[in-house]
Please model this.
Amino acid sequence: MKLRLPLYARILLWFLLNILVLAVAFSIVARSQFGQGFSSALGSLAGDRVRVVAERIHYALSMQPKAQWDRVLDEFAKEYDVHVALFQVPDRFIAGEPIHIPPEVHEEVRSIIPGLGREGPPPQRRAPPPPREEGAFGDSFLSALGDEPMPGDGPPGDNAKAGAGAWPTRVRMVMKVAKESPRYWVAVHVPPVELHPADRAPWLLFFASDSVTANGLFFDVKPWIYAILAALVISALLWLPFVRGITHSIRLTMRATENIAQGRFDVRVPETRGDELGRMAQAVNLMAGQLDGYVRGQKRFLGDIAHELCSPIARMEVGLSILENKIGAENLERLEGVRSELRDISAMVNELLSFSKAASGMDGLPPETVALRALIEESARTESVPPEFLHLDVDDSLQVLARPDLLKRAIGNVLRNAQLHAPGVIRISASRRNGHVLLTLADEGPGVPADSLPRLFEPFYRVDTSRTRDTGGTGLGLAIVKTCVEACGGSVTVSNREPQGLALVFKLVAVK
Model:
């Protein structure tokens, strides 16, 4: 049994899944950047960058006399756009930029490295080897700096792992956010460069910056930009099937409603979804079925009525002919008036029959290949259109798929209306476009009001509501045109021309 969930529940579940995926992705990036947090960045990518820089600084200091230490630290400060200072515990300034160290940074250093104030025997120093580019801070930085560990560098057991006479590989580092400027501080516990035996206190190398990134030293923003872009891509890929399913269902429903609005009630929307969109598809299908039944019943009723009226009208015409021979001359005028009204009724019944036959033609034989120009010329002769009033621009080789009788009736109705309401030249042209033929029939009349254009194809609709004998017509002419063209597998649109006139465009299926 398929699980049926409302649409808002599906969106909520998908959103929670998206949040979960992004949270996992960001946690991976955060751990790679900060390890266990900003204040404990040892072992993370941020800590590795700082340790490598501290290793370079320490090696540069060991290779230079003390008089050059300020220059060395100034070069590194400019390279990373940070403040660099070297202090000896507790607060003796040695080299670099003389900066004030905030109290909270002092406290953080003492809480993380409690043994910094402990004195011990002076270490026996050896010249440090050149640093390894690929090594971590502790590996190549402290391998031969003495037999004794620096005070505060951890228990003796750590030194045993590093080998006899080696410094511990784990070097303490503190990252702290201060209240005053510069706000972001990193302190690295480095071994002192021996000046004389009395210099036994530990050294701290401070990096300070007003920016959390410190030009990529503290925090590399590029991985986060990549992470955000990856999150957007992941979210797009994650939401793509869900949104595509919704938009596909909406698109199918929209197309079905457009067809229904154009009078095509045989369309159906798939009812495979179990949410509100699925229920909407069911409602659209039910509505289309009911409208199809109503319209078919209406057309059938009109056809039956028109067919039943033919017999009494014929009998009335015979009766009037007989009565004409039996009445006096003084009543002949009245008899002619009755005969004129009967002819109008007969014309309306014939229009109803034509409309009914055109509608039934939609369910008739399949379309066949029709030579368009020859059919137009035949229809013009049937409607007695003078050649001088017909401008025909249709290629002889142009062919369409259509029902010849219905297409001829549609073209004939347009030509008849043009002669009645817009005397003048009738221009007919055709062009091929995207597998279709666009047949345009344009007159030079006054056109119709813009608000009447959408209703011209409605049965019994007339722009002139007076329905006098002078204006004529039953309001079925363009309704028959639309029905005939759709029975041929095409469509028809109408628009006003500039500066004046009315144009109808038949969109027919072209023969390849």
About this structure: The first strand starts at residue 83 and ends at 88. The chain has twelve helices and twelve strands.
